[in-house]
Amino acid sequence: MEQTQVASPDTAQNQEAYEEKNVHEIYQKIASHFSSTRYKPWPIVEQFLKELAPGSVGLDVGCGNGKYLPVNPDVFIVASDRSENLARIAVKHQPHSAIVADILNLPHPNSFFDFTISIAVIHHLSTSDRRVRAIREILRTVKPATANASGGKALIYVWALEQKDSRRGWDKGDQQDVMVPWVMKNNPSKDGSSEQSTVFHRYYHLYEETELERDIRMAGGFVLESGYEKDNWWAIATRFDQGI
Hints:
Elements: E1 4-5, H1 12-36, H2 43-50, E2 57-61, E3 76-81, H3 84-90, E4 97-100, E5 115-119, H4 128-141, E6 153-159, E7 177-185, E8 197-205, H5 211-218, E9 222-229, E10 232-238
Helix pairs in contact: 1-3
Keywords: Methyltransferase, Transferase
Organism: Aspergillus tanneri
Domain Methyltransferase type: 59-144
């Protein structure tokens, strides 16, 4: 089973330092290799983006290499990632923009965007409180629903605990806070010796069934749709005009 069990850090300062070491620094180091493995849009994310009205403006929070930016040429996306190295790759997807930003403190106005996607990001935050805060921050950026308008929508994906049919083998009852290895092969040495591998470990919180919907409600959101796709839980959420 591909995991090392971990305990969540106990203070805000420790949580930030823990995520810096076990998430942010890792993605800085593996950015190029990670990007080379991320090129095919997930079906539900692709469908969500293609169904948006022409001219829609939205966010991709935790965009990675920006693989979702070209999916719908009729919308404009402001992408962001905590990793500067990944943002530099994403910015190549013109005319969209890409910036470095922290999901807990997004540099965007309230109630402005038509949509937001955040794919496989929330699960890297090390406590329930920080994950709910991140969702609240995402919801803050979208237009609220009113009596006369449906409002903006946010699509959020997280890794599932229930993956018994995957190579990882996790399932209900297993530890939810884990370290997941990323294996990166190094170039052969000059003397022709065989390739060596470097293993990096990234922190994940594995979401159990209904946990994502609960976190969205705690963040002040309303779940429109939700489901399971390829070892991930996903949900589409909106918010009402209640001053988030």
